[in-house]
Amino acid sequence: MDDDINPPLTAIDQIANGDQLQMIKAALPYISQSNQKYAALYVKALEISNILSFYQETQDISICSLESEQTSMLDMFHDIKNYCSETQRTALEQCIQIFQVMNTYQAMNNTSESTSDKTDLMKSFLSSEQQSLLETYQTLFSTT
After folding, report:
1. For the CA atoms of 120, 122, 128, 134, what is the dihedral angle to 10 degrees?
2. How distant is the alpha carbon of residue 115 from its chain centre?
3. What is d(CA 19, CA 11) in angstroms, rounded to the nearest whole number?
4. Who contacts 119 (Cβ-Cβ below 8 Å, separation ≥6)?
5. Please, how many CA atoms are within 13 Å of residue 107, restricted to the half-sphere of its CB?
């Protein structure tokens, strides 16, 4: 993760930290070295306690629990991107693009349009050079 970027806390971190734990964590470097270890362990124990309390109340942090929102892998990938290094973010963005292409392809296959209409739709996403190349390939494959 980039050092100069502070991503937002995840839902589980917000639950674990409560209201005061971030302040205690910020104060840790100012505590004497002999007490830092105990203070850090105390903070982690409070985090675990907060999480256990949250789940004992049978609450859910799952986005799947929201009836009005349809979740997808793309939504998850977009959320994960906030916590990646630049290299990981680049790889994840490539995955996102692949999923978007797959979703578009599936949507096109699920329509009742004719093949030529689908081809015209695909051409609208391509540059003129790519359209020319596609037409060349269509000609090559249709004659064999």
Report:
1. -90
2. 33
3. 13
4. 138
5. 8
Closest CA to 48 of 20, 18, 24, 27: 18
Amino acid at 91: A
Kindly indicate the confidence band of residue 35, based on its pLDDT and cuts at 50, 70 and 90. very high
Question: Which of the four pLDDT bands, split at 50, 70 and 90, describes residue 68?
Answer: very low
pLDDT for position 73:
75
Q: Are 73 and 99 in contact (CB under 8 A)?
A: yes
13 pLDDT higher than 50: yes
Burial of 45-71, coded b for 16+ CB within 10 Å and e otherwise, reads ebbeebeeebeeeeeeeeeeeeeeeee
Q: Is the pTM of this model over 0.90?
A: no
Check pLDDT > 60 for residue 121. yes
Distance CA 14, CA 8 (A): 9
